[in-house]
Write a structure and sequence with these properties.
Number of strands: 4
Structural class: alpha+beta
Oligomer: single chain
Strand content: 5-15%
Strand order of the largest sheet: 1-2
Radius of gyration: 14 Å
Distance between the termini: 45 Å
Helix content: 10-25%
Number of domains: 1
Shape: globular
């Protein structure tokens, strides 16, 4: 059994899907995210780029998990996007 945890990243977006921040202890995953422009300043709303876990969570106002069929499981893990309430109580 391997003691190495799977690579993961945490992203924070606003209500439009604009990436505000991202964190990962794995520099390799950050490089992969750079390749698909999943970095601070980029927009990931479904109206702009199509179906994705970030945009779906915003649209549904609830958690989203993209099925493995939408992203090759050999290249990427499954995406999970739980919404987090705004600290100000205003989300739009």
């Amino acid at each position: 059994m391997s003691s190495k945890a799977p690579a993961s990243a945490l992203l924070l977006t606003d209500a439009r899907g604009q990436v505000i921040d991202r964190r990962s202890a794995d520099s390799g995953i950050l490089t992969r995210l750079d390749r698909i422009e999943l970095a601070p300043g980029f927009l990931y709303g479904e109206d702009l780029i199509g179906t994705n876990a970030i945009g779906t969570a915003i649209t549904q106002r609830g958690p989203s998990v993209e099925p493995e069929t939408s992203i090759s499981p050999r290249r990427w893990p499954r995406w999970r996007a739980p919404p987090s309430p705004s600290p100000t109580g205003r989300d739009r």
